[in-house]
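Ticket #4471: structure export looks truncated?
Reporter: QA, pipeline team
Priority: medium

Steps to reproduce: submit the single chain below to the structure queue and open the exported record.
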Amino acid sequence: MKKIFLILAFATGPILLMAQHSNEPQDTSWKKIYRGSATLVNDLVHTKLDVKFDYTKAWMYGKAWVTLKPHFYATDSLTLDAKGMEIKEVAIVNGSAKQPLKYQYDGAELIIKLNKVYKGGEKYTVYIDYISKPNELKVKGSAAITDAKGLYFVNPTGEEKNKPTQIWTQGETEASSVWMPTIDKPNQKSTEEIYMTVPDKYVTLSNGLLINQKKNNDGTRTDYWKMDLPHAPYLFFMAVGDFSIVKDSYKGKEVSYYV
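Actual output as written to the record:
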């Protein structure tokens, strides 16, 4: 009789637990939230960045060449996400020449009046000279990622002896626009080039391939990274610091990674 009771208990236990959970109120409010993708007016095509860092102020001095095209309808305006920046110059690029453009900036969006009406699919390149000041920006993240500062300076002046000096980015989901003007939406895709000028003692990391490194006369080095596959702005990445190369093996092959 005891054996029969135990068998019944094991058999009916999960059913009773499931019935108990099914009676609990379920939060289904998320099902009523419309999550439409961002409206496509202009499409990113290519992003070229030239950046250097001020370790004392925790600033990044940037120059951006952003190539775009109207998604479908003709347009004479462009809105870029650019959070907490100081905008120095905005221009349209014609070959090697630059033509200044009128713009409005509210600290979050850069609204640019283009030099003409561009037809759907017609490419153009906008140049922006700016300063990124991530530590002076107050932004709110999401439930998953509570901090959306985008660009992080870790022990930049080296005052903390037991902590390495590093710079790194985290763009998910719309935080890359703290350090580069872009259309910071996951439904955008862009190829990229990044020139990073850093003290020669540091290692740099970014997307794609390290094409070349150039030593400068002031003790710095400029690394050129290039990524030929289009990807969302939140996947743009930079890291600078005292990283070490570690060699290991994976599936019988030698691999190297930075720590």
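Status: closed, not a bug. The export was complete when the record was re-opened. Leaving a note from the reviewer for reference: The chain has a mean pLDDT of 88.
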